[in-house]
Every structure is written in C-alpha cells, then in structure tokens.
Amino acid sequence: MSLRFTTAAFLLLTAGSVKAQSAPAYIVTRLGVDTVAVERYTRSRDRLEGDLALRYPRVRTVHYVADLGPRGEIKSFSTVTRRPGADPNAPPAIQATASFADSTAVFEVHRGGKVDSATSGKKVFHGVASPLLGLGPPSYGIYEQLISSSALDRDSAVYALVSPGNNPTSSLILHRRGADSVVFNSTFFPGWIEVARVDRRGQILGVDARATTIKTIAQRVPSVDMDNVLRSWAAAEVAKGGATGEMSPPDTVKASVAGANIAVAYSRPLKRGRVIFGQVVPYDQVWRTGANAATMFTTDKDLVFGNTVVPVGKYTLWSLPTATGAKLIINSETGQWGTDYHGDKDFTRLDLTSRQVSPPVEQFVIGIVPQSSGGLLRFAWDDREYSIPFTVKP
C-alpha cells in the first residue's frame, strides 16, 4: 500500500472563518492493530503548526507551518523532514516551502541542504487550493483546516491538489454527509473515499479511510507522548538492521516448471489483526491480488490452465473473491497501478480452488509449485488459500 503524492503537495485555502484552537490536538492513525502515524497540531487565526511522525517506509518526522491570511487563506507553507536522532544543526533530509498568489504557487525544495531543481519552481493551477502532505497517511491538521474553512452546509468544496515538479494537478472534494461527518474524495485516485467524523466546531474526531488504498483509521486522542513513540519506532528499525520498509513490501517469486521460466512480481500486505476476505478485500469486487502496482505475471513458454492456453508473454493477475469461491483474472495490460483495472483488457477468467487454512497467514504470499508436467499457482492470506493447476504446452 502506498500513496503516489510528491513529498509535499500544496493547496491554497478558500476564504472562510477559521476557528482558533488553543490546546494541541492529537491524531493517531492505525492500519489494523499497528500504529503507522501520530500527529500533533495547533491552530490559531493566523497560523497552523504541527508535527507528523511517520513509521513507513522509514521513521521520520515532518514539522509543518502554514501562515494564514485574514480570511483563513494560506499565504505560505513550509515543511521540514528529519530522521529521529539526526543532528538538529545539520540540514534536514527534506525542506520545502511554498508561497501562493492567485493561480500560481512557487516551490523551493531542499534535499540534504541542496536545492532540488527538479521540484523547485513555479506552477500554475486553476481553482482554489491548500497544502496537503502526501507522505503516506495525510496531515489531519490540514484536513481540519479545510473543513473549518469551507462552507459545507449546502455546497461541496473543491480544492486543486498542486504539487512540486511535473505531477499533474488533481482535485480534493469535500462534502458534508449528515450533521457529523464530512466525506473527502480525490480525483487523483478515482473511488477514493475518506469519511471524517467531526464535532460542531469542525474538529476531526476520527477518519475512516478503509475505502481507500491506504486502509487506515485515524482517531483523535487526549494526548500522545510523541518522543516516546519515535524512540520505540527508531529502536525497532535498529533492531531490524535498517529501514522499516514499505507497509506492503515488494517481492518476486520465480520457478522453473517443465522447462518454463515463470515469475510473479507483486507486493505483500499484512493482516495486522484484520479480517481480510469480505472486509479488507470485499467480496464480488476485482482485487489487485496484492498491493501497490498491479501484480505482474511472466512466462517464456505457453501455459495451459484447464482448456485455456496462455501464450508466452507478460500479464497482470487480478482476482474476484466471492463468499463461496474466487476467479483468477489474467489481464493483458501491464505496467499499471493496482487501482487501474480495465476489464476490456481481460485475457481470460478462470475458476480457482478455495480452501480454509489454519493458522491464518499473516502476510499475503503467492507461490508457484512445480508438479510433474506442470505446476500449481496459488496465493494465500488470512484463512484462505486459492489455487489453480497448469501445464506447460509441449
């Protein structure tokens, strides 16, 4: 699982009445039973300031400051990203600033103290916009600023997502759903839905992002010892011998089956205490069969699945789980992100054999098992294993 935003994405707030918040707010973001982000922020009439601690793919903190105009609009925005334990006098890993005027934004991005010319410069956008940290789980301090500054009683609020570099501009859309919730949609990821629970002052109480690709749940809490959280995360990194890594790390399984060289490149999400099939992976919906980029399948010999011949080549693998079974989808399109499924590119759909497994499989795994003149393609996660036999065409 991963978000494809640049290090910092920026928007300019619409005019509105921004309510001051004197005491710090704390938001904890979890993926299943694992805490993946912790945020602390304060808001006043002319300033939003916060710290976001992130666990993946490397433990780091992002300190952000937004200077607000008299109507709540953001005049400038800056972020400083550091690794825990880094020399406070050394240049930060990443430092980014943005200033806004009408329909233009001017960015300057430093990496290790040096200007990154690929992401610095001017960018023109259309519509209204405001800063949004694209660093995995988002900054809910900025989300709260958007909510409190938007008139959502009757109309939706649309913001341009403007990022450094050459990334395309997309939109973030807010609309109220009932008296105590606000829905966030993104045109960057079609179908993206986050639901924020808010109080009467527009303060975020929690955010359910399980309908998105990040699958997280955020909750407002009375306080958090962020220093202790960072120490424990950093210690876990040291014990592991390196960076925490991706939340759904990439992997490749290869096998030689009856003279055919077969490979599957995919990403491996973890269970993290969740019910997978029927919840994290909904029934009767096409699933990417992994995480992040679409799962790639390659063979240098023709393969036969039942009565279907799959010629030499590259494909992507998808699946359609149901309450009673599943289908394997072999698609001819390759190189796409795992949310970009196009059914008109399907090469074939095949029935999978399903069985219950115990104990549950914590991390999703795909295997290729050689068997006489062919093999078995199988994948397992939580309490399910799906498989299909194949042979190599002579």
How would you explain this protein's 3D organization?
Residues 1-18 have low confidence and may be disordered. The longest helix has 15 residues, at 226-240. It is elongated and about 75 Å long. The protein has 394 residues and is mainly beta. It contains 2 helices and 24 strands. The chain starts with 20 loop residues before the first strand and ends with a strand. It has helices at 140-148, 226-240, and strands at residues 21-31, 34-43, 47-54, 60-68, 74-82, 94-101, 104-111, 114-115, 121-124, 157-161, 170-176, 181-186, 192-198, 204-208, 217-221, 250-257, 260-267, 295-299, 303-305, 308-310, 313-321, 326-331, 346-371, 374-392. 35% of the residues are buried. The strands form 2 sheets. The chain has a 15-stranded antiparallel beta sheet that branches. The protein has a 9-stranded antiparallel beta sheet with strand order 16-17-18-21-22-23-24-19-20, with no helix packed on it.
